[in-house]
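for ur thesis appendix - Universal stress protein UspA. copy paste whatever u need, i formatted it the way the template wanted (i think)
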Amino acid sequence: MSAPDQQRGIVVAVDGSPASNAAASWAAHEAAMRKVPLTVVHAVTTPTATWPPVPYPDSLAVRLEDEGKKAIMHAIKLAEEALPAGREVSINRKLLYSSPAPALIKMSDDAEMVVVGTAGRGLLARGVLGSVSATVVRHANCPVAVIHGDDLPDKHDAPVLVGIDGSRASELATAVAFDEASRRGVDLMALHAWSDIAISELPEADWSSLEQEAQRSLAENLAGWQERYPDVTVQRLVERDGPARQLTEKSQFAQLLVVGSHGRGGLSGILLGSVSNAVLHSVRIPVIVARPSASA
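the 3d part is after this line
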């Protein structure tokens, strides 16, 4: 079933790769939970210019277009198979003649979420963890979900994990995490990791008092959300360790990780530096990067 362009709901970028296929299935489940349409997108991009210029045969453009159509149709089949029993989702297909990143960012203006795989095939292989993904997670106007192509055990009962540092970006991540936990009917693990600097390296550091203060701040940050989502049981975690290591470690016991697009303190640079690279490379579960909407 087809949905109008203006009702994109969840947008998933596909290219036929394993991670792209996993992204299509995950996106379909997300769309079903939210009761919104799913838009399956493939961007047909010709190779970059060479020097000296080499003309490309017309057959290349035809082949790329044909591969894109096949990738979309296969992704739609996987999406339909991934839908929970009794759930129907309107599916829109979109074959674009554009660079992937600008196209996805533009579509994010009226999408609830953009979903991408961690690695692609062909021209989209520069996707997530490369230039395309880096651009999308920094500039999209809605949350961005990053999906690995690994075969993971069913963790539908596992909690949602969120990294919290008290920043505005962290507040957005908390909002997304509570919503996801509530929709899934699972607990929420709220993690505050103290610092990349070992406590032992801080002169005259009193960890017990620092931990008490961190626990108090974390509780305050979560109080309003717990009132809004009384159905979600929250596990508050304060760790004396670097955020990337703790997020990666705790992700083994979660079904989904939610992080902010930037931050300060213990989670500073979560998507703009070494922490983000470590998390996106090492965490195998889906990761949602909380981005503000275009209207925010």
